[in-house]
């Protein structure tokens, strides 16, 4: 062994030197050169750092640098994340996305353009005017639809989600139809009110009659009884003096 090479190394090194750091690594660790000032030293890591990709060989596992525009990569020719200002597409870092694709500034990738999609139109609504369906001849009817897919930045914009058109109906009065329910409610309330009023009046009448009856009975109790008048025919009867 060279005098500058030591086998009692730390940090995962199998062999090392005071000047160059790790010269070889323990099994399954990756050897990578790190620049410190004007010199490079070897280090042994369990995985390659950002900007490097790992390659395993029978004698040594090495970390190699990705391309300059690539932040992380799987191999030198397949990037998994680009540096700022570049968009990832099929393992490559591009300044501008190809035709038919658009740049996604959130993921920094080139993605497919998504166009807006809308559902089918609903049936036309009843012909109305000012919220009523009667009492007029010309009105409007409406139909609507929903957005089922919103567009991406370069996608076709969404169409209108509602349409209105003129409509003609046979003119008819809507007082009975429109106010029928209200009139029935008012009539029912009036009947209930009248019944309640009659019930109260009957109760008052019964109470008044009962009070009058009780008053008469009390007055009769307070008046003195009249003496029975004598029978004049009995008083004038002849006295029997035959004895």
Indicate the CATH architecture of the domain at 7-65.
Ribbon
Distance between the termini: 190 Å
Broad CATH class of the domain at 7-65: Mainly Beta
**Radius of gyration, in angstroms, nearest whole number:** 55 Å
Helix content: 10-25%
Q: How many beta-strand runs?
A: 17
Order of helices and strands: EEEEEEEEEEEEEEEEEHH
- Tell me the strand order in the biggest sheet: 1-2-3
CATH topology term of the domain at 7-65:
Hormone Receptor, Insulin-like Growth Factor Receptor 1, Chain A domain 2
Per DSSP, what share of the residues sits in E-state strands of 2 or more residues? 25-35%
Average the pLDDT over all residues and give the rounded result.
81
GO biological process, one term: Wnt signaling pathway
Pfam family, one: TSP1_spondin
Main location: secreted
GO cellular component, one term: extracellular region
Overview of this structure, please?
With 243 residues, the chain is α+β, with helices and mostly antiparallel strands. Among the domains are: 7-65, Hormone Receptor, Insulin-like Growth Factor Receptor 1, Chain A domain 2, CATH 2.10.220.10; 72-112, Hormone Receptor, Insulin-like Growth Factor Receptor 1, Chain A, domain 2 (Hormone Receptor, Insulin-like Growth Factor Receptor 1, Chain A domain 2, Ribbon); 118-168, TSP-1 type 1 repeat. Helix content is 21%, strand content 33%. The strands form eight sheets. A three-stranded antiparallel sheet has the order 1-2-3, with no helix packed on it. Strands 4-5 form a two-stranded antiparallel ribbon. A two-stranded antiparallel ribbon has the order 6-7. The mean pLDDT is 81. Residues 175-219 have a biased composition (Basic and acidic residues). It holds the Pfam family Furin-like_2. It is found in: Secreted.
């Amino acid at each position: 062994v060279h005098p500058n090479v030591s086998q009692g190394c730390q940090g995962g090194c199998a062999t090392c030197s005071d000047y160059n750091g790790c010269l070889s690594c323990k099994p399954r660790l990756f050897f990578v050169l790190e620049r410190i000032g004007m010199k490079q030293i070897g280090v042994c890591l369990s995985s390659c750092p950002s900007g490097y990709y790992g390659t395993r060989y029978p004698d040594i596992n090495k970390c190699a640098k990705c391309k300059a525009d690539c932040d992380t990569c799987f191999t030198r020719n397949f990037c998994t994340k680009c540096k700022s200002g570049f968009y990832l597409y099929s393992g490559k870092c591009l300044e501008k996305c190809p035709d038919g694709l658009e740049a996604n500034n959130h993921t920094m990738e080139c993605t497919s353009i998504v166009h807006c999609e809308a559902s089918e139109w609903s049936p036309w609504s009843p012909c109305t005017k000012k919220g009523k369906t009667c009492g007029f001849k010309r009105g409007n009817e409406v139909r609507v639809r929903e957005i089922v897919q919103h567009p991406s930045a370069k996608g076709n914009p969404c169409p209108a989600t509602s349409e209105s058109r003129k409509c003609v109906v046979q003119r008819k009065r809507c007082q009975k139809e429109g106010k029928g329910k209200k009139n029935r409610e008012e009539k029912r309330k009036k009947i209930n009110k009248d019944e309640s009023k009659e019930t109260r009046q009957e109760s008052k009448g019964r109470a008044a009659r009962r009070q009058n009856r009780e008053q008469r009975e009390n007055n009769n109790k307070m008046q003195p009884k009249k003496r029975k008048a004598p029978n004049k025919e009995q008083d004038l009867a002849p006295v029997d003096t035959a004895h």
